[in-house]
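Researcher: For the record, we're logging two predictions in this thread. I'll number them. Prediction 1 follows.
Model: Prediction 1, sequence and structure:
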Amino acid sequence: MPASSSSLSQALQVVAVLQWVFSFLALAQVCLALLLFALTGQAWSLAVLYLVWLYRDRDTPRTGGRRSAWVRNWAAWRLFRDYFPISLVKTTELDPSRNYLFGFHPHGVLVIGAFSNFCTEATGFSRLFPGLRPHLLMLPCWFRFPIFRDYIMCSGLVSSDKASASYLLSRPGGGQVAVLAVGGPLEALEAKPGALSLRLRNQKGFAKLALEHGASLVPVFSFGENELFQQVPNPPGSGLRAAQEALQSLLRVALPLFHGRWGLLLPFRSPVHTVVGAPISVQTTPRPSQAQVDALHALYVQRLTQLFEEHKARYGVPAHRHLVLT
């Protein structure tokens, strides 16, 4: 490839990533401001009509969303993929007649691997897993922002509340995949280069959910997810960590202080390999006991650890490094 063509391609990749970072961090606030501006201007009638429609559409984020194949196949997502690059690794076949709950690890700062692999077709999800429809679960607060919520649903993002996940996992005929970053927002505070700490030991709600609906549990590990940003030091017990945890409890979102290339919010160019493991078959148990939840959780931790150990050498993790569960 000529040098000029290569430079243009890299520049377009940077633009694709920056627009996504902007969308993730600021687009919601911009959309809200635009709606308020419209309400106070000449377009107030259109804004009022939208608000009426928004009220009628309020349950869509928790009833499967409103995905768009066109949006999921945008060329911008292929540029986004190639910037790092990001790949989706299949280890076994998944039966499209079943519903699945994917546990995604680690959360990372901005769950970039989860978005690229499950909210776009850039890494070939539908080709690798025909008959399955992935839905990435996102904090419910983001679906309260007008216009923004309609945009993110186009990619397959849905609310992460229990009603939303239950709706997907109870669909007759199968083919639904709910993707959950199990560690949640607090795990983002541990997302630093080289970190292998997972907030999983006491996270058992996903196991109970799988039992209630008989959904197969699938461990997913995204190698390289924590290498994409550097954070301001915030060790447990520090004043910064205490403030971040307090704000997370209040706002329900994590606020890591991070940077990437050139000290900006542009992620480092570092490969991400998202490995989808083998499913754990789960029998439908409408009212699972704590012992049943604990047993499934323990099995899941075992399978996730096995998945990590089997693939870590291939993706540059030293043999002496192991997962740390908190």
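Researcher: Logged. Prediction 2.
Model: Prediction 2, sequence and structure:
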Amino acid sequence: MSAGDVILGQDLTGDRDSRHDDGAAGAGSDLLSRRKLLIGLAVGGTVALSELYVPRRSVARINEDVFGKLIPEQLGSWRYATQSGLVLPPEDQLSRTLYEQLLTRVYTDGGADPVMLVMAYSSVQEGRLQVHRPEVCYPAAGFSIIENSAATVPINDRFSIPVRFLAADRGARREYVMYWTRIGDSMPVRWFDQRLMMAKANLQGFIPDGLLARVSVISDDRGEAMATLTRFVQTLVADSGRAGRAMLIGPH
């Protein structure tokens, strides 16, 4: 073999290697392009699915005037007297953003102790009513919770409202409190159940509205206070009309 043959062989081998490299580069480029295309399709599909399953609000916002008219100023023998004197969370910028509507009223009937009513509402419930739970706002106002138990208020033969019954004490003042929450169509009593109902609704594709309703009376007699609050709640539901009942207890 001559030096020329060696050089020629080297040149020919180099050409074959060059062509092989070019082919491999082309194949790699095609593979990369297909991979990018598949990734792009996957990302686009994920975005589309996320848009499809983003929870949507289930009810429209309600303005203050309409919300206030849901609850009559005359409830049986009780009449709306004032809106002052109720225990509420500390007023600050945060608490003002935690609800859309807040109704506070004191009702009197000339006989029993005055009944205080608080309704905190949000058309998009994301746990924001937690600030209005008596276990939170009463201690913030200097009260000690000396009783906290589950109870029910019968509305008719088929339905009773599950409530919490509390006794809050601040020395010279003892207030008995009854409250319930409505999340969409459900009425969870415990905070954990409230979060669970919200999660289930979100998985179904919607964000429920939420209400916390609280009634209370200042009294030294537990039995009398329980009887007064039970009677008031029954009258409240009975006299509030269809829209008011739906706000208070849902489609029950």
